[in-house]
Protein backbone atom coordinates (compact mmCIF):
# COMPACT_ATOMS: atom_id res chain seq x y z
CA UNK A 1 0.00 0.00 0.00
CA UNK A 2 1.15 3.57 -0.49
CA UNK A 3 1.06 4.36 3.25
CA UNK A 4 2.74 3.27 6.45
CA UNK A 5 2.14 4.89 9.83
CA UNK A 6 4.61 2.82 11.86
CA UNK A 7 8.32 2.36 11.08
CA UNK A 8 11.75 2.06 12.65
CA UNK A 9 15.37 2.47 11.56
CA UNK A 10 18.60 0.94 12.78
CA UNK A 11 19.99 4.42 13.25
CA UNK A 12 17.60 5.23 16.08
CA UNK A 13 16.36 1.77 17.07
CA UNK A 14 19.68 -0.07 17.42
CA UNK A 15 19.48 -3.78 18.15
CA UNK A 16 15.90 -4.06 16.92
CA UNK A 17 16.23 -2.58 13.42
CA UNK A 18 18.66 -1.96 10.57
CA UNK A 19 19.65 0.79 8.11
CA UNK A 20 19.82 4.56 8.41
CA UNK A 21 16.71 6.68 8.61
CA UNK A 22 17.54 8.29 5.27
CA UNK A 23 17.98 4.88 3.59
CA UNK A 24 14.58 3.86 4.94
CA UNK A 25 12.96 7.01 3.55
CA UNK A 26 14.68 6.64 0.18
CA UNK A 27 13.41 3.06 -0.07
CA UNK A 28 9.85 4.18 0.69
CA UNK A 29 10.18 6.79 -2.07
CA UNK A 30 11.48 4.18 -4.51
CA UNK A 31 8.36 2.11 -3.83
CA UNK A 32 6.10 5.03 -4.76
CA UNK A 33 4.76 5.39 -1.24
CA UNK A 34 2.89 8.61 -0.54
CA UNK A 35 3.09 8.70 3.26
CA UNK A 36 5.70 7.08 5.47
CA UNK A 37 5.36 8.06 9.11
CA UNK A 38 8.48 8.06 11.26
CA UNK A 39 7.79 6.45 14.63
CA UNK A 40 10.94 5.42 16.46
CA UNK A 41 10.56 3.92 19.94
CA UNK A 42 10.34 6.40 22.78
CA UNK A 43 12.70 6.41 25.80
CA UNK A 44 12.35 3.69 28.43
CA UNK A 45 13.44 3.48 32.04
CA UNK A 46 16.64 1.63 32.88
CA UNK A 47 14.80 -1.34 34.38
CA UNK A 48 13.00 -1.86 31.06
CA UNK A 49 16.04 -2.68 28.95
CA UNK A 50 15.83 -5.56 26.51
CA UNK A 51 18.38 -8.35 27.09
CA UNK A 52 20.91 -7.13 24.55
CA UNK A 53 20.70 -3.47 25.57
CA UNK A 54 23.24 -1.55 27.62
CA UNK A 55 21.63 1.85 27.13
CA UNK A 56 20.29 4.00 29.94
CA UNK A 57 17.39 6.43 30.15
CA UNK A 58 19.93 9.20 29.64
CA UNK A 59 21.16 7.70 26.36
CA UNK A 60 17.56 7.03 25.28
CA UNK A 61 16.75 10.70 25.80
CA UNK A 62 19.81 11.77 23.80
CA UNK A 63 18.81 9.34 21.05
CA UNK A 64 15.33 10.85 20.92
CA UNK A 65 16.75 14.36 20.57
CA UNK A 66 19.00 13.24 17.70
CA UNK A 67 16.10 11.38 16.05
CA UNK A 68 13.81 14.40 16.04
CA UNK A 69 16.53 16.64 14.60
CA UNK A 70 17.33 14.18 11.80
CA UNK A 71 13.67 13.47 11.06
CA UNK A 72 12.89 17.18 10.70
CA UNK A 73 15.90 17.61 8.42
CA UNK A 74 14.83 14.71 6.21
CA UNK A 75 11.21 15.81 6.12
CA UNK A 76 12.33 19.14 4.72
CA UNK A 77 14.75 17.50 2.28
CA UNK A 78 12.16 15.12 0.83
CA UNK A 79 9.01 17.19 1.29
CA UNK A 80 8.28 17.27 -2.44
CA UNK A 81 8.61 13.50 -2.82
CA UNK A 82 6.87 11.90 0.18
CA UNK A 83 4.87 12.79 3.26
CA UNK A 84 6.81 12.13 6.49
CA UNK A 85 4.67 12.72 9.58
CA UNK A 86 6.83 12.88 12.68
CA UNK A 87 5.86 10.60 15.53
CA UNK A 88 7.03 7.95 17.94
CA UNK A 89 5.85 4.60 19.23
CA UNK A 90 4.83 4.75 22.86
CA UNK A 91 5.98 2.18 25.40
CA UNK A 92 3.36 1.48 28.08
CA UNK A 93 5.22 -0.70 30.58
CA UNK A 94 4.57 0.61 34.09
CA UNK A 95 2.69 3.62 35.57
CA UNK A 96 5.80 5.79 35.21
CA UNK A 97 5.69 5.22 31.43
CA UNK A 98 2.95 7.83 31.23
CA UNK A 99 5.34 10.51 32.49
CA UNK A 100 7.95 9.68 29.85
CA UNK A 101 5.40 9.71 27.03
CA UNK A 102 3.93 13.05 28.10
CA UNK A 103 7.44 14.46 28.47
CA UNK A 104 8.15 13.56 24.84
CA UNK A 105 4.89 15.12 23.68
CA UNK A 106 5.66 18.33 25.55
CA UNK A 107 9.28 18.68 24.47
CA UNK A 108 9.16 17.90 20.73
CA UNK A 109 6.95 18.91 17.77
CA UNK A 110 5.47 15.47 17.17
CA UNK A 111 2.56 15.24 14.74
CA UNK A 112 1.18 12.14 16.46
CA UNK A 113 2.19 8.94 18.19
CA UNK A 114 1.39 5.25 18.05
CA UNK A 115 0.11 3.85 21.33
CA UNK A 116 1.44 0.33 21.87
CA UNK A 117 1.81 -2.29 24.58
CA UNK A 118 4.79 -4.66 24.35
CA UNK A 119 4.92 -5.77 27.99
CA UNK A 120 2.66 -7.59 30.43
CA UNK A 121 3.63 -7.38 34.10
CA UNK A 122 6.70 -5.43 32.82
CA UNK A 123 7.90 -8.49 30.83
CA UNK A 124 8.23 -8.23 27.02
CA UNK A 125 5.65 -10.46 25.33
CA UNK A 126 6.89 -10.19 21.72
CA UNK A 127 10.66 -10.58 22.23
CA UNK A 128 10.96 -14.38 22.41
CA UNK A 129 8.98 -17.38 23.57
CA UNK A 130 10.88 -17.66 26.86
CA UNK A 131 9.92 -14.15 27.95
CA UNK A 132 6.35 -14.66 26.77
CA UNK A 133 6.14 -17.80 28.92
CA UNK A 134 7.51 -15.89 31.91
CA UNK A 135 4.85 -13.21 31.47
CA UNK A 136 2.18 -15.88 30.97
CA UNK A 137 3.20 -17.63 34.19
CA UNK A 138 2.98 -14.34 36.07
CA UNK A 139 -0.47 -13.76 34.57
CA UNK A 140 -1.80 -17.13 35.73
CA UNK A 141 -0.29 -19.72 33.42
CA UNK A 142 -2.56 -19.75 30.35
CA UNK A 143 -2.83 -17.80 27.13
CA UNK A 144 -6.34 -16.73 28.10
CA UNK A 145 -5.10 -15.19 31.37
CA UNK A 146 -2.26 -13.27 29.74
CA UNK A 147 -4.60 -12.09 26.98
CA UNK A 148 -6.89 -10.64 29.62
CA UNK A 149 -4.01 -8.90 31.38
CA UNK A 150 -2.66 -7.57 28.09
CA UNK A 151 -5.97 -5.98 27.13
CA UNK A 152 -6.31 -4.55 30.65
CA UNK A 153 -2.88 -2.92 30.26
CA UNK A 154 -3.94 -1.66 26.86
CA UNK A 155 -7.09 -0.16 28.36
CA UNK A 156 -4.97 1.72 30.91
CA UNK A 157 -2.84 3.04 28.06
CA UNK A 158 -5.89 4.08 26.01
CA UNK A 159 -7.63 5.89 28.84
CA UNK A 160 -4.47 7.63 30.05
CA UNK A 161 -3.02 8.70 26.70
CA UNK A 162 -5.74 8.57 24.01
CA UNK A 163 -3.20 7.73 21.29
CA UNK A 164 -4.17 9.00 17.82
CA UNK A 165 -3.10 5.64 16.32
CA UNK A 166 -3.43 2.38 18.23
CA UNK A 167 -0.58 0.05 17.32
CA UNK A 168 -0.78 -3.73 16.70
CA UNK A 169 -3.93 -4.05 18.79
CA UNK A 170 -3.60 -7.80 19.42
CA UNK A 171 0.18 -8.16 19.50
CA UNK A 172 -0.12 -10.51 22.47
CA UNK A 173 -1.01 -13.42 20.20
CA UNK A 174 2.41 -13.42 18.49
CA UNK A 175 4.16 -15.87 20.85
CA UNK A 176 1.03 -17.66 22.07
CA UNK A 177 0.39 -21.35 21.54
CA UNK A 178 -1.93 -20.60 18.62
CA UNK A 179 -1.51 -17.08 17.17
CA UNK A 180 -4.45 -17.64 14.81
CA UNK A 181 -7.00 -18.73 17.42
CA UNK A 182 -10.26 -16.84 17.82
CA UNK A 183 -10.60 -14.40 20.70
CA UNK A 184 -14.38 -14.70 20.57
CA UNK A 185 -14.12 -18.15 22.17
CA UNK A 186 -12.69 -16.60 25.36
CA UNK A 187 -15.49 -14.67 27.04
CA UNK A 188 -13.35 -12.56 29.36
CA UNK A 189 -10.86 -11.71 26.62
CA UNK A 190 -13.54 -10.77 24.10
CA UNK A 191 -15.32 -8.56 26.63
CA UNK A 192 -12.07 -6.67 27.19
CA UNK A 193 -11.48 -6.29 23.45
CA UNK A 194 -14.94 -4.78 22.97
CA UNK A 195 -14.41 -2.47 25.96
CA UNK A 196 -11.13 -1.24 24.44
CA UNK A 197 -12.73 -0.70 21.04
CA UNK A 198 -15.49 1.31 22.73
CA UNK A 199 -12.80 3.45 24.34
CA UNK A 200 -11.11 4.08 20.97
CA UNK A 201 -14.47 5.00 19.50
CA UNK A 202 -15.19 7.45 22.32
CA UNK A 203 -12.07 9.55 21.81
CA UNK A 204 -11.80 9.12 18.01
CA UNK A 205 -8.65 7.01 17.71
CA UNK A 206 -7.51 5.23 14.56
CA UNK A 207 -6.75 1.50 14.48
CA UNK A 208 -3.72 0.48 12.46
CA UNK A 209 -3.77 -2.54 10.17
CA UNK A 210 -0.25 -3.78 10.81
CA UNK A 211 1.26 -6.12 8.20
CA UNK A 212 4.09 -7.36 10.43
CA UNK A 213 1.88 -10.18 11.75
CA UNK A 214 1.69 -11.60 8.23
CA UNK A 215 5.40 -11.06 7.73
CA UNK A 216 5.97 -13.10 10.90
CA UNK A 217 3.89 -16.03 9.65
CA UNK A 218 0.39 -15.38 10.93
CA UNK A 219 -2.73 -15.77 8.82
CA UNK A 220 -3.99 -12.22 9.34
CA UNK A 221 -2.44 -8.85 10.17
CA UNK A 222 -2.93 -7.10 13.49
CA UNK A 223 -5.73 -6.90 14.44
CA UNK A 224 -7.50 -10.11 13.43
CA UNK A 225 -10.52 -9.95 11.16
CA UNK A 226 -12.99 -10.56 13.99
CA UNK A 227 -11.64 -7.50 15.81
CA UNK A 228 -11.73 -5.41 12.63
CA UNK A 229 -15.38 -6.34 12.10
CA UNK A 230 -16.22 -5.31 15.67
CA UNK A 231 -14.34 -2.04 15.06
CA UNK A 232 -16.28 -1.46 11.83
CA UNK A 233 -19.53 -1.85 13.75
CA UNK A 234 -18.37 1.01 15.98
CA UNK A 235 -17.34 3.29 13.14
CA UNK A 236 -13.63 3.12 13.95
CA UNK A 237 -11.30 4.26 11.17
CA UNK A 238 -8.25 2.31 9.98
CA UNK A 239 -4.79 3.23 8.73
CA UNK A 240 -2.08 1.04 7.19
CA UNK A 241 1.32 0.20 8.66
CA UNK A 242 4.21 -2.10 7.83
CA UNK A 243 5.97 -1.76 11.21
CA UNK A 244 9.19 -2.07 9.23
CA UNK A 245 12.54 -2.42 10.99
CA UNK A 246 14.73 -1.88 7.94
CA UNK A 247 14.56 -1.39 4.20
CA UNK A 248 13.82 -5.05 3.44
CA UNK A 249 10.57 -4.88 5.44
CA UNK A 250 9.09 -1.74 3.94
CA UNK A 251 5.61 -2.47 2.49
CA UNK A 252 6.18 -6.17 3.23
CA UNK A 253 3.11 -8.41 2.69
CA UNK A 254 0.96 -5.50 1.47
CA UNK A 255 -0.73 -7.53 -1.32
CA UNK A 256 -2.03 -9.92 1.33
CA UNK A 257 -3.15 -7.02 3.49
CA UNK A 258 -5.12 -5.54 0.58
CA UNK A 259 -6.90 -8.87 0.13
CA UNK A 260 -7.58 -8.90 3.89
CA UNK A 261 -9.18 -5.45 3.75
CA UNK A 262 -11.49 -6.61 0.97
CA UNK A 263 -12.37 -9.83 2.80
CA UNK A 264 -13.17 -8.12 6.10
CA UNK A 265 -15.16 -5.33 4.46
CA UNK A 266 -12.95 -2.34 5.21
CA UNK A 267 -13.97 0.00 2.41
CA UNK A 268 -11.52 2.84 3.02
CA UNK A 269 -8.41 3.76 4.97
CA UNK A 270 -7.17 6.93 6.61
CA UNK A 271 -3.76 8.41 6.01
CA UNK A 272 -2.04 11.12 8.01
CA UNK A 273 0.11 14.01 6.93
CA UNK A 274 1.85 16.94 8.53
CA UNK A 275 0.18 20.26 7.90
CA UNK A 276 1.24 23.82 8.41
CA UNK A 277 -0.68 25.78 11.06
CA UNK A 278 -2.67 27.70 8.45
CA UNK A 279 -4.16 24.55 6.86
CA UNK A 280 -7.57 23.12 7.73
CA UNK A 281 -8.06 20.54 10.45
CA UNK A 282 -8.64 16.89 9.66
CA UNK A 283 -10.52 14.37 11.74
CA UNK A 284 -8.32 14.16 14.81
CA UNK A 285 -9.71 16.68 17.29
CA UNK A 286 -6.98 16.89 19.88
CA UNK A 287 -5.14 20.06 20.83
CA UNK A 288 -1.90 18.10 21.16
CA UNK A 289 -1.84 17.35 17.43
CA UNK A 290 -2.67 20.59 15.66
CA UNK A 291 -0.13 19.84 12.92
CA UNK A 292 -1.82 16.63 11.77
CA UNK A 293 -4.16 16.27 8.82
CA UNK A 294 -6.21 13.17 8.04
CA UNK A 295 -7.54 12.10 4.66
CA UNK A 296 -9.51 9.10 3.49
CA UNK A 297 -8.90 6.82 0.48
CA UNK A 298 -11.36 4.23 -0.76
CA UNK A 299 -10.27 0.73 -1.73
CA UNK A 300 -10.86 1.36 -5.44
CA UNK A 301 -8.49 4.33 -5.42
CA UNK A 302 -6.08 2.39 -3.24
CA UNK A 303 -5.92 -0.47 -5.76
CA UNK A 304 -5.20 2.02 -8.57
CA UNK A 305 -2.39 3.86 -6.77
CA UNK A 306 0.97 3.97 -8.57
CA UNK A 307 2.48 2.06 -5.64
CA UNK A 308 1.30 -1.23 -7.14
CA UNK A 309 3.38 -0.64 -10.25
CA UNK A 310 6.56 -1.27 -8.24
UniProtKB/TrEMBL annotation:
- A Pfam family this chain is assigned to: PHP
Could you tell me the keywords of this UniProt record?
A: Amino-acid biosynthesis, Histidine biosynthesis, Hydrolase
User: Mind telling me which GO cellular component terms the entry cites?
Assistant: cytoplasm
Q: Which reaction does it catalyse?
A: L-histidinol phosphate + H2O = L-histidinol + phosphate
Q: Which InterPro entries match?
A: Histidinol_P_phosphatase_HisJ (IPR010140), PHP_dom (IPR004013), Pol/histidinol_Pase-like (IPR016195)
Name all PHP domain ranges.
5-212
Gene3D superfamilies named in the record: Metal-dependent hydrolases (3.20.20.140)
* EC nos: 3.1.3.15
Please cite one Gene Ontology biological process associated with this protein.
L-histidine biosynthetic process
Q: Name one GO molecular function term.
A: histidinol-phosphatase activity
Q: In which pathway does it act?
A: Amino-acid biosynthesis; L-histidine biosynthesis; L-histidine from 5-phospho-alpha-D-ribose 1-diphosphate: step 8/9
- CDD domains named in the record: PHP_HisPPase_Hisj_like (cd12110)
Keyword Amino-acid biosynthesis tagged: yes
What NCBIfam families does the record point to?
A: hisJ_fam
Protein family membership = Belongs to the PHP hydrolase family. HisK subfamily.
| Descriptive protein name | Histidinol-phosphatase
> From which organism does this entry originate?
Cladophialophora psammophila CBS 110553
Amino acid sequence: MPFSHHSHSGQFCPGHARDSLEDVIQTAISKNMSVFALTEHMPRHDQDRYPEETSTLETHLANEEAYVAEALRLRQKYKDRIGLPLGFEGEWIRPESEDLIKQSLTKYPYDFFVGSVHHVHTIPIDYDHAMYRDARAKAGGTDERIFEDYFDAQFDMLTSLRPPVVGHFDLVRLKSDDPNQSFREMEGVWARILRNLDCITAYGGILEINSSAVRKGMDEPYPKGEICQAALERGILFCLSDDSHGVDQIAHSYPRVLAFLEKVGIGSVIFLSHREPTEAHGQIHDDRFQALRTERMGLKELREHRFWGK
